[in-house]
Amino acid sequence: QNNQLGMSIEVISIIVLFLSFFILLMLKVPVAYSIGISTTISLLLNIDKLPGITTIAQRMTTGIDSFALLAIPFFVLAGEIMKRGGIANRLINFAKSLVASLPGGLAYVNVLASMLFGAISGSAIAATSAIGSIMTDRMEEEGYPREFSASVNITSSTTGLLIPPSNILIVYALASGGTASVAALFIAGYLPGILLGVAIMAYIAFVAISRKFAKGSRAPLSLIWTYFRKAFFSLLLLVIVVGGIVAGIFTATEASAIAVLYAAVLALIYGDVSAKDFPSILLTSTKTTAVVMFLICTSMAMSWLFSFEGIPELISSFLLEQFSNKIIIFLVINLVLLVIGTFMDMTPAVLIFTPIFLPVVVALGMDPVHFGIVLVLNLCIGLCTPPVGTILFVGSGIANVSVSQVVKPLLPFLLIMVIVLLLITYIPEISMYLPRLFNL
Questions:
Q1: Is 439 helix (H, G, I), strand (E, B) or coil?
Q2: DSSP code of 249?
Q3: Which end of the chain has less Cβ packing within 10 Å, N or C?
Q4: How confident is the model over 335-354, as pLDDT tens digits?
């Protein structure tokens, strides 16, 4: 009877955990607080099996006691410096010199600049705001609808979360328990990120030809070389950071500190940032870091509770018993993650659902690095969709158009992203070719 009672309490605590979490989200309680409160409530139902309520505080503290996580505040700071340091304009001019002569050329410029800036800054939001604020007006002058420009900007900015350096890949490396290294994840993100950008540009080509969008004049080689020289040192940051990590010269954490120093010196040389601007840059970066770290704290506590309740094992057993075909299981996991991404921020989603689904996909032969790329791309799509699509709201605000206006032109782009997601899911070599080539 005691065993039956114990089992019933465990089942009830799991139900309470999920139910309270979703109710709090619907009540628009911030995600970090929703995670912490629901975890605490569920824990109280198991108080007889645990040392006490201090367990939550202990798990939150140990959850961020990781050297690898030191990279996040540094990359956030580097991204903020780049956002204000005139790098966006230089990348846009370089991209424009390359592709503006094609039909729909400015839309290609938007995508290419977002890919470059997102990769350099490691932030999709920074790419959306920096590139969108410059490109939307330029595109409108050339006859592009603002809602179309916003859709291009919103979806293309997610490529920077796949192309390294990427904070979310560092978070996944932590959540995977060390089965996926940061170096392997960084190098694995290149081809999927480029594939996503190319796919978006392919759809733009179709729209540009059918709607007869304007094209600019072809830039002479001398002008391309001039803009390349101006953007060279910005682009060099990618080589220094990722190349240094892959070559084993320094760790991801050390690379993030180097990125800050490099970005600060570059911004001062460019003259777009002065010494008096750094206090506000540091304050903004600190606020962003605090939010991210608090999300990680509470998410790690919830992940630990999942393990304590045996939820990953239950879900793994259920999926493997219900579906015999791994293709179907991968599809089900993708569908679940796509739904999750529509209402949950990326960082807690990675920390909470990695320990749930990683054992399942590993049992089916998927490499943890491969799953990390699939997971991040899934959640990138969620960033572009309501009701909690952060990039959707930022991009719409930057373009000064309502979300309802953006949704219709955004739908084909989302379909493109889903198609790329399926390709990456079922063709492992897209993600794994480069890590295997570098023996990572």
A1: coil
A2: S
A3: N
A4: 888 888 877 778 888 888 88
- Distance separating alpha carbons of residues 344 and 417, to the nearest angstrom: 18
Q: Write out the H or E segment, with its range, that includes residue 100.
A: none
Cα 80 to Cα 263: distance, rounded to the nearest angstrom: 9
Q: Which residues are CB-contacts of 238 (< 8 A; sequence separation ≥ 6)? A: 119, 120, 164, 165
Written as six digits, the tokens of 43 are: 């824990």
Give how far the C-alpha of residue 315 lies from the chain's centroid of Cα atoms, to the nearest Å. Answer: 25
CA-closest candidate to residue 239, choices 136, 165, 303, 341:
165
The pLDDT tens digits of the residues spanning 114-153 come to 888 777 766 777 778 778 877 888 888 878 888 898 899 8
Confidence of residue 47 (pLDDT cuts 50, 70, 90): low
Q: What integer best gives the mean pLDDT of the chain?
A: 82
C-alpha distance across the termini of the chain, in Å: 51
Cα-based distances in Å from 278 to 79, 83, 128, 262, 320 = 13, 12, 22, 14, 53
Look at residue 368 in the predicted model and tell me its pLDDT.
95
Distance, in Å, from the CA atom of 350 to the CA atom of 35, rounded to the nearest integer, reads 13
**Mean pLDDT value across residues 417-428:** 95
Task: Report CA Rg, the chain.
Answer: 22
Among candidates 160, 152, 48, which has minimal Cα distance to 107? 152
Concatenate the DSSP letters of all residues of 329-368 into one string. HHHHHHHHHHHHHHHS-HHHHHHHHHHHHHHHHHHTT--H
Q: Report the largest interatomic distance among the alpha carbons of the chain, rounded to a whole angstrom.
A: 83
C-alpha to C-alpha distance for 395 and 153, rounded to whole angstroms: 7
